[in-house]
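User: These chains co-purify. Model them together.
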Amino acid sequence: MLSPRKSLTLCGLALLLAACTALQTDLPAITESPTDNRDTGRVVWHDLLTNTPDASRRFYSKLFGWQFEDSGTEAYQLIRHEGKLIGGMADTRALGHEANVSQWVTVISVANMEAAVVAVKNGGGKVLTPPTHLPSRGTLAVIEDPEGAFFALLQTTAGDPPEAEPVLNGFLWDEVWAREIDNTRRFYQSVFAYELDSTATAEGDYGVFSTSSMPRLGLLPHPFPEVRPVMANYLWVEDPAAITQKVEALGGEILLEAGPRPLGGTVALIAGPSGAGIALQTWPLPETGDL
Amino acid sequence: MKKTAKRIVQVALTGILVLGLSGCDDPQVYGSIGVSSYSGGGYYGYGGTGMRTSISIGGRIR
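Assistant: Joint model of the two components:
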């Protein structure tokens, strides 16, 4: 027989384990106003993977006024902007490997995870994390497209957030930077049943994936072909140049100085303290009619 | 015999607890990214430094 003290200790540890197990296998819901709808192909969330969470929190708070709050899980914080949840921040030091995987992960909604995963595999993509049930958030899978760009699929538990207009200093857009445009187009259309419109620009065609006439995701010939294909994320800012002036003092890096772009408006590319990149652009675009 | 069984149970419980606690609070769903796809290292989302050029990128148009 175990002594009463040992029994109590084991019970206590077992309770702690149960609590940790619960935390480990859950993340908070992405909205406080779930719609009960799941809009396949819609970008519903962004997670920042960072190995410098404190510096990253300071960086995004100072530049964009975001608030970070505890989620109940030490290695994961929620990001709020103007009162609304807009994303999460995961501490990659808790992942248990040496690689610096700092980056923003685009999370795309699906109504049927099982069908989406089959389409990913049939289309030449890889399922890095198989569908994982997170009770509060939903079922999440981490995907690599045929060229190696990462994103996540999410079938939300209670439904996606309501559709909302972009907010200044919040997320505005997401796009795939691909080397083989046709193959990539086929992949995303097969997984999300996207329609595609193309706009001719001086730099080549710019593709806009949409569902139900709602623009969801861009498709662009990779501007840095030597770099691994990625899913790029854009924030709507008033003045990209004014932001970039503050980036280095906050531990970040300017990857592309602010400047005009063929698609209209102004754009810049920066990296936070962990190296995770994010683009900044003006919006709405001036109506120049010269796209 | 009884003592040995008790010992085995204690060791097993301790092992389970250690394994469980080591993963406590991890955002494990994203762990696969580093394990299977970053063998080359040095990747920082957009390739790190040396990109301050006049290259155009995209962004929302509608």
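The radius of gyration of chain B is 24 Å.
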